[in-house]
Amino acid sequence: MNKKEVFKLAKGFRGRAKNCIRIARERVEKALQYSYRDRRNKKRDMRSLWIERINAGTRVHGVNYGNFMHGLVKENIQLNRKVLSELSMHEPYSFKALVDVSRTAFPGNKNMAPAPKKEGLSILV
Length: 125
What we know:
This protein has 125 residues and is an all-alpha fold. The protein is 65% helix and 0% strand. The protein has helices spanning 3-9, 21-60, 65-74, 81-90, 92-105. Helix 2 (21-60) crosses helix 4. The longest helix is centred in the N-terminal third of the chain and has 40 residues, at 21-60. The protein is rod-shaped.
């Protein structure tokens, strides 16, 4: 990269990293490495967030995440994790229908007891 491109990318950096070409070139190169790495990590983090949300939604209905997903695969329901997490947050009745379908498809889902309900402040009083 030439000097002009380096300084354009180094805009906003602290200290001499924004106006001294040797330091700026090193910092820009490292910043580009970080951005390359984190574009991949972002996908990984989003997938784990979706899985956490699905797991929380399924445990409310007494099924764990692995058994829920296995039941969906056995029923040939091809919804991705992003859609399932959105359903668990914004469409609880639709998600409960999916949990019920998964529960009937995989016998391992029937053994789990539903999670106990918490009463909130009445426990403390």
